[in-house]
Write a structure and sequence with these properties.
Length: 662
Amino acid sequence: MNRLIRKNKEATGNNKPEEQENDKMEEAIEDTLQVSTETNDLLEAIKQKVDNDNENNCIGTLDQPMPTDEFKIEKYTVGLTSFITKCVTPMTIAIQGEWGSGKSSVMQMVIEEIDKNNKTTNQDNKEICRKIHCTTVNTWQFSQFNSESNLSTSLMQAIIDGFEDKKGPSKFTKIKNNIAQIGITVLKGATARFIEGFDVDEAIEGFVKVNKIIQDLKDSFQQSVYEAMKEHGVDRIAIFIDDLDRLEPERAVELLEVLKTFLDCKGCVFILAIDYNVVVSGVKTKYKYGNDKNDEEKCRSFFDKIIQVPFKMPVAMYDVSNFVHNALSRIAGISDSNRKDSIYVKLIENSIGQNPRSMKRLFNSFVLQLEIAGTELSDDIKSKTILFATLCMHLQFEELYGYIVSNLENLQDEYFNRLASDDLEIVASELKENGVISSDDDSYSEEQSKSIRGFIRVFNTAITPSDDGKVILNKELETAKKFIKISSMTATGKSEDKAESKEKKAGKERTKEINEWFKDYIERSQELKHTNPHQDKGTFLLFTTDNFEDTFKRFALSENIKGSYTARYGLSIRSEGIKIGPGIMAPEETSTDEREKLYNKLKEITGLGNANPDLTHSGGTIIHSNKIAPDAYTREDITRETFEKMLDDVVDYDKKMFGTNN
């Protein structure tokens, strides 16, 4: 009743007592609705203000599905959309990818493409144009507020909520109530033996009552699908289920088992975003499987029974340069014009990789460090680049970063140049000595050394621009040190406080002392000479002789060896012993066949050799031996006199093995 009419009745005394109560109730309802409308308007205005502020005035990058196709993978999302539109139903598709690879973004792009297609008629061609209603369920969000016992029922109810036409009364209340009444116990029972190769009916054979309940529920769900298609005027329903792999693996598997009960409904296309490894982990946990081949096949069988079409995230095809360029321009004012040869892209590819979520975390950390650095950076692009490079190191190579931060004042350019060496043995030896990598697993250490070397070469280029990043200079390094210090302010984990033990410090000092002995000896020697002036310090020193080099020049010429190589001695200074040996190193372009010839010649001359030489190793093969010196000495107990006597023995050994007669 209109408020004016009520007041008129009050003034004339025509309203009865019971009418007065009703009038008061109506007024209260009207006031509540008015307040509610005003509140909603206010909240909407605030939301718009926050969105506008985020878009135009705030720093940082949101960890949300990307609103635009910054990785330029349109052909993949358009193709997936086309398949969803044209495929037979029922159909189940898995968008597969690791954590943070962009599955949610692809889902969002597909939904937008479907929405665009829904608005076209395609009258000008013979393409089938089906209209699709999309509904999206984020399992992770509602799982945070539901116990394990009702997670699956919540999922089913959320799917049906997406069928609703919000403009009118609900037509799906009955099925939602049925789902709630049946509960997770029955749903679990329906799928308990699915993993063993039985379908739902076989799994519940003998439980007629449960079977009927489940069948009735499936029939109701199918009718709901038809009702939703009618209500929205579409030809099929696309149900997008996101973030399954954010759940505990076992719970994710349980949801997949429950979904299997309903996935065979006509008119439905289910699109699931999931990491295959999460499914495998969940199946193994739930069904107590091991890691043998038979159990792995059972896990694959489980996945294949649920998923009809796997769509793997096209991470390798991402246009990372475009994404990085846009992000850096937006958050740091960096215009990286040379996108294809971008130093920022190289730093990312050689550290954290192309995972979108990892890159967003990197950019947010970069913004924080820019704020900390403040006016020290000004508009100096090179300083920003060095800061960015250091952050990449911190996020991917924490042990290396921790060592550098802890020893920053004492580090010289030679350290970074050794880590960029062509000889992987030098890189590995340096990293092991510093405690950056373990010496327990040689194959793993080799992979770590290769990764660090690849990154350091790009890092060096960020400090001292060059073609190969193998050399940086102290002048530029001093500038870089300032920004490495800034980056340590946001360090976490092991790099926060990496104090060295007294033993390690003493070992470093001892190595430094032996390095000085070596340097003095080389400067006085007529026979021994450096092979690289930038790599004459550390735990693995290189030198050669004219005899050694000439011997292999003649051999290479006689054998028509075209690949490049170097003949040199390696001096390893380690706590467990000091070793010296001749070796042949060759870069990657030298063939394995040529390396084998060089190695066999070295073995023929010296009589020394490794039992299983790795002739494919890009650094070549070093033959370490204490036979050159009369005795083996440790780093701690060797004297200068003994050390120089050891090098005298090398000179004698060299003349004997590689003299002109050879």
